[in-house]
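Example complex used in Figure S2.
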Amino acid sequence: MEGLRLGVFALGMMVVCGTPVQERGGPLPLVIWHGMGDSCCNPFSMGSIKKLVEQQIPGIYVLSLKIGNTIAQDMENSFFLNVNKQLDLVCEQLSKDPQLQNGYNGMGFSQGGQFLRAVVQKCPSPPMKNLISIGGQHQGVYGFPQCPGESTYICDLIRKTLNAGAYTKFVQEHLVQAEYWHDPLNEDLYRNGSIFLADINQERGINESYKRNLQTLEKFVMVKFLKDTMVDPADSEWFGFYKPGQSKETITLQESSLYTEDRLGLKEMDKAGKLVFLGADGNHLQFSEEWFNENILPFLR
Ligand SMILES: *[C@@H]1O[C@H](CO)[C@@H](O)[C@H](O)[C@H]1NC(C)=O
Ligand SMILES: *[C@@H]1O[C@H](CO)[C@@H](O)[C@H](O)[C@H]1NC(C)=O
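Predicted assembly (301 residues):
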């Protein structure tokens, strides 16, 4: 069978999210957060992932998050709705969903990876067991290469806006990608100005509850795409980034001060075997069904 290909930027407009009923004592539910320009239910991306998981784990309750009332709003919000507001909406939805009250696993695609990590840190109830970040950018991005297909216009606009002033208050409040923009040449500006990433990465101070909550995870799985040409730098998918002050040389999570000072508890988690670093041999979000079944499903069972 041909590998499953995720058209993450494709615009899916027709499928409605279904919510199968979870049986008592059945498998742990799964919450999915889609990536930029995608939606909860695109049949070529999240829709097919949901179906695949439902086939492989009979009886599982899968909630693919829809931010907004319609699919079109969901896609638009992935560019323009302040992440902190999205988090408020999602946390409220999760806390009210009767099917999730005994816990759930989380799986985020691309920017959905860092957003679900924020859910773990900020909203401990109901509890997440395993977090699976598929191409998430945990140290942000510094560049916006390759913006394909139908999103070209939006991406040009975003690039111009980021260059004009990613850390200005207005841009921060209205452009999602600015909220995880990480300028290694201006770490101070990032630290002070980023309303999302600098906050959840403890850049302005240490919120002990972020650290405590993240450590309740059993596993934090990070998938990096080894031929990723869309995320700059791709090391961010394993929580690495550019070494401060320049934008060529990268350092790993283990070499970063976030880790050595253990501001977020990642060092402790690493020592306890809770961090899992997986590589997928393709471009951003490109993987086969076989790869998914073999590498990801074991964390969902
Ligand atoms: C820590 O984070 C929680 C959850 O977002 C927030 O309610 C609290 O005010 C934060 N504490 C500090 C000291 O900023
Ligand atoms: C820090 O950010 C605040 C809010 O955006 C801004 O008012 C202030 O001037 C910034 N300070 C520095 C040193 O950049």
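Confidence is low (pLDDT under 50) at residues 1-23. Strands lie at 30-33, 62-64, 104-109, 128-134, 219-225, 241-242, 250-251, 275-280.
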